[in-house]
User: Which sequence fits this backbone?
C-alpha cells in the first residue's frame, strides 16, 4: 500500500511540488552514485532516463516522457543476468518514475543500496551517503518510510 504522504497536492495529497522535485533530484543522486558500478560502458537508456528525470524537475519533460524512459531502463534490467546491472537499471527506472509517483524515489535509493550490496561494497556507507544528500524538507518523510522497505529488500 502506498504511503499517502507521497501523494501530490494536485491529486489530493499533502506532497508539495517542491518536495516532489526534491525527491526526484535525490533519486537522481542515488542512481548516479551507483552508475559507476557497471563495469561496461553505461547503456544510453540509463543516461537518457536520468536526463529525462532532471528535465522533468525543471519542467522540460512530461510525466509521459518519464514513463517511457522508465520502461526502457527497466527493460535493460530485464535483459540482464548481472545482479549489479539489474539493480542499477532498476534504480534508474525508479528514479525517472518518481515523476509519476513520488514514492518511486524510495525504490531508486533501495535499488542503489542493492547494487552496492551485490557489488560487495558497504551498504551502511552508501545509506549514510544517501542520507547526507537528503534535503531537510524531505528527510523525515524518506527516513520514516525507508526503514520498513529496507526489510523487504533484505538490506537490514
Assistant:
Amino acid at each position: 500500500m502506498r504511503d499517502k504522504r507521497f501523494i501530490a497536492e494536485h491529486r489530493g495529497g499533502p506532497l508539495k511540488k517542491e518536495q516532489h522535485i526534491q525527491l526526484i533530484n535525490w533519486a537522481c543522486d542515488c542512481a548516479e552514485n551507483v552508475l559507476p558500478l557497471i563495469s561496461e560502458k553505461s547503456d544510453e537508456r540509463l543516461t537518457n532516463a536520468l536526463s529525462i528525470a532532471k528535465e522533468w524537475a525543471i519542467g522540460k519533460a512530461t510525466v509521459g516522457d518519464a514513463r517511457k524512459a522508465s520502461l526502457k531502463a527497466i527493460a535493460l534490467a530485464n535483459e540482464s543476468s548481472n545482479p549489479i546491472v539489474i539493480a542499477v537499471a532498476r534504480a534508474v527506472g525508479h528514479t525517472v518514475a518518481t515523476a509519476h509517483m513520488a514514492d518511486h524515489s524510495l525504490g531508486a535509493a533501495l535499488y542503489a543500496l542493492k547494487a552496492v550490496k551485490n557489488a560487495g561494497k558497504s551498504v551502511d556507507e552508501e545509506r549514510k551517503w544517501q542520507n547526507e544528500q537528503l534535503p531537510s524538507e524531505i528527510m523525515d518523510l524518506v527516513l520514516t518510510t525507508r526503514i520498513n522497505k529496507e526489510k523487504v529488500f533484505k538490506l537490514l
Q: What stands out?
A: The chain has a mean pLDDT of 94. DSSP finds seven helices and no strands in the chain. Residues 13-145 form one domain. The two ends are 21 Å apart (CA to CA).
